[in-house]
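Project channel, design review

CF: Before we commit to the Panacibacter ginsenosidivorans constructs, I'd like one complete example in the thread so the newer folks can see what an input/output pair looks like. Taking Endonuclease III.
RD: sounds good, go ahead.
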Amino acid sequence: MSKVDWPEAVKPLLKKYKDTKHPLDYGNTYQLLVMVVLSAQDSDKHINQIAPQFFAAFPNMEALSQATTDAIAELISDVRNFGNKSKWLSELSKKIKKDKNIPLTLDELTELPGIGRKSANVIKRESGAEAEGIIVDLHVVRVAPRLGIATGTDPKKIEKQMMDVLPQKQWDAGMAMSFLGREICRPTNPKCEVCVMNTVCAYYLGSK
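CF: and here is what came back for Endonuclease III:
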């Protein structure tokens, strides 16, 4: 790990993406939770396309809790891993029952089927709940080691490394890195010249 002052170094990144909404096009916490479960190993764009029809059929947690697994599966049949996701949505809706009961703590969220740390962190961020962790999606797994703020490819280890060097008030750096990864720090041909992090980025400085 380089001797970068990361709390100082991530400020331009946090400023650039401050208050930027997650790419999932949800209308409330119920929709957010469902779409986060559906988007695992699938694309946000695809989930945005199928969501209107899904929520027309199941407008809230109560309606979803009364649906059969088959009825749920029918509406998400072109989503990756739809079999498991149908079961997870059925189980979690029966457990939560109503929209107002949706939990917003990391422990309670990760106890729900189909929701891991990343998903829970996304739900907490978008709901305005205080951060208990850092979002590490596939973009962050690429961007964080490139920058040099973390090493390896294990999302949990990357999250822990970032939590160790950044104060809690900067934990939105994960989502900011995700946006950076989508727009600028692409897998191939990253746009390093226009990146707000290029003055500290190990990948850029090493390739110059």
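RD: helpful, thanks. The chain has two domains: 6-19+134-207, 29-127.
CF: The first helix runs from residue 6 to 9.
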